[in-house]
Design a protein that fits this description.
Blueprint: H1 9-18, H2 26-47, E1 56-60, E2 66-68, H3 69-85, E3 88-93, E4 100-101, H4 105-108, E5 112-120, E6 131-139, H5 150-153, E7 162-168, E8 172-177, E9 182-188, E10 193-198, E11 209-211, H6 222-232, E12 241-242, H7 248-258, E13 261-264, H8 277-290, E14 294-296, E15 316-319, H9 321-331
Parallel strand pairs: 3-5, 11-12, 11-13
Antiparallel strand pairs: 1-2, 3-4, 5-6, 6-7, 7-8, 8-9, 9-10, 13-15, 14-15
The chain binds 6-O-phosphono-alpha-D-fructofuranose.
6-O-phosphono-alpha-D-fructofuranose binds near residues 247, 248 and 274.
């Protein structure tokens, strides 16, 4: 046994792949490509402020949201790495209106599709708060070699082959699941690789942290308001804490490790909420459930939702199972 045995992300994926003799190794290559882009985005995020990558890109995306320069940089980095890697036949991105088909000879004959939010939490970029990348991996449904269809990219969350996020915070960490639990890898810049730092993460069954944009309180349905009141009025002994940074990856990651509930409900001015099913809800719901948590719209399991549009939104409640159950009890009255 080597002292301080370090397990790299690549080694970990290879070990997991070896448990599945039928595996082709293509998924390992998808992680290779995501890891490469993540290191480049990490470099760009870390030097933001020193070079002209802060601020607005001068355009708005399909969501009608102001695009930041780093958003577009990150989007291009992940598209480029996945294209050069040759194992991804299409990408859907929060920053792209439609399917991005990858039609090089290698990619056209590959079977994996990526759904990604290349840089989530843009509003925090210019104020040096942590941000992240979120991704899902799906296997195409239509025959390999044929043009990717809408059916290929609009798959239920239960069809995810893998999901993960990279958090560019006090350290840069990649948290992933391939359906066999949740593991986190911290970037060791001295060796330029992600190393296993949090094996087999399980979210605490209950918690005291609730994360929600309280500014929307008056526009929430009464069940959600009642749950927020329940948390606010908790006794000193039970004292709940409100923690919300406005960057889903950061709020999610804290609650995953400490226990808590992350909420982005529907509201009177946003009847489906704000977060995107394909780019935020599904990958984070997969990770939540693999860590022993619950992820619902308040009415149904997120992973069971049937997507109908690339950029569709849904209400989000995810985290410690006892907290999600309590929230749902208020919604169900
Ligand atoms: P609000 C960031 O823009 C984001 O998509 C998520 O990362 C975050 O949880 C949410 O929006 C914050 O939205 O309306 O509270 O600022």
């Amino acid at each position: 046994m080597r002292i301080n045995q370090v397990i790299s992300l690549s080694q970990f994926i290879a070990d997991q792949q070896s448990k599945h003799p039928e595996a082709s190794g293509d998924l390992s290559k998808i992680f290779r490509d995501i890891k490469f882009a993540a290191k480049i985005v990490n470099r760009d995020v870390r030097k933001a402020g020193l070079v002209d990558v802060l601020g607005a890109h001068g355009t708005v995306n399909v969501q009608g949201e102001e695009v930041k320069k780093l958003d577009m940089l990150a989007n291009e980095e992940f598209k480029s790495s996945l294209t050069l890697g040759g194992d991804c036949c299409a990408i859907i991105s929060e920053e792209e209106e439609d399917i991005h088909h990858i039609e090089t000879t290698l990619n056209v004959n590959s079977k994996y599709i990526i759904a990604m939010d290349p840089l989530d939490g843009s509003s925090n970029i210019d104020v040096n708060a942590s941000i992240g990348t979120i991704f899902s991996v799906y296997r195409r449904i239509s025959p390999i070699g044929e043009p990717v269809t809408m059916e290929d990219v609009l798959q239920k969350g239960t069809n995810q082959v893998a999901a993960g996020y990279i958090i560019y915070g006090s350290s840069t960490m990649m948290v992933i699941t391939t359906g066999q639990g949740v593991n986190a890898f911290t970037l060791d810049a001295s060796i330029g690789d992600f190393c296993l730092s949090h094996p087999d993460i399980k979210i605490p069954k209950d918690g005291k942290i609730y994360s929600i944009n309280d500014g929307n309180y008056d526009r929430f349905e009464s069940g959600v308001q009642q749950y927020v009141d329940y948390c606010r009025n908790s006794t000193v002994k039970e004292a709940y804490s409100a923690r919300y940074i406005g960057s889903m990856v950061s709020d999610f990651h804290r609650n995953l490790l400490k226990g808590g509930i992350f909420m982005y409900p529907a509201s009177s001015d946003a009847p489906n909420g704000k977060l995107r099913l394909m780019f935020e809800s599904n990958p984070m719901a997969f990770i939540t459930e693999q860590a022993g948590g619950k992820a619902t719209t308040g009415a149904e399991r997120i992973l069971d939702l049937e997507p109908t549009e690339i950029h569709q939104r849904n209400p989000v409640f995810m985290g410690s199972p006892d907290m999600v159950d309590k929230l749902e009890s208020f919604i169900k009255g």
